[in-house]
Amino acid sequence: GENVEQHPSTLSVQEGDSAVIKCTYSDSASNYFPWYKQELGKRPQLIIDIRSNVGEKKDQRIAVTLNKTAKHFSLHITETQPEDSAVYFCAARRRKSSGDKLTFGTGTRLAVRP
Amino acid sequence: DTEVTQTPKHLVMGMTNKKSLKCEQHMGHRAMYWYKQKAKKPPELMFVYSYEKLSINESVPSRFSPECPNSSLLNLHLHALQPEDSALYLCASSQGTASSYNSPLHFGNGTRLTVT
Questions:
Q1: Which of A81, A93, A113 is nearest to A36 (CA)?
Q2: Which one of B56, B104, B110 has the shortest CB-CB distance to A99?
Q3: Cβ of B41 under 8 Å from any chain A Cβ?
Q4: Tell me: the pLDDT tens digits for A40-73?
């Protein structure tokens, strides 16, 4: 099955700096890669996603890049703010006839220092 | 505010109790999911329902029994749980149709379950 590795496990940045979180996946048939943000005690919320036919996607301060050959994808947050502090999970999904199965990475705890 | 509603928010139950978790969505989604999340860990998939039929069971113990009464509702029946089953149980839904390839998951706020 799919295996998703995520690094780093913790990340501390100064407000205004950029943050980068990296993930690798094992199943070359995976074709959908979402990123979720989970604040303490709350549900995971989708912040951005990318499909395998696209190399990069941006949404304001957030961007995701995908390298299908190397099987890795990254989340980039620019001009970080204290409210960006949360746990971020990457995930990978392969469409199967038995149903969609999303495999999550182990998470990155991001702390933005004011 | 969330488009996937879960009840109850918190549940404490003994090992001999029977309880149920409930999930509801009115987005017309045809795929619904149960995930289990332990502290400081990612969500782990338990079950997937597609068009109200169980399509994936991730080898979950039989003390967890899912049910999908209709396209908007998803239940998780609990019986004879163990203390290690204490976790946040998340329900999610997605469009899940052939034309909505790779649609995102929408999570509910979860039920925090404690087994004593």
A1: A93
A2: B56
A3: yes
A4: 989 999 999 998 888 999 999 999 999 999 999 9
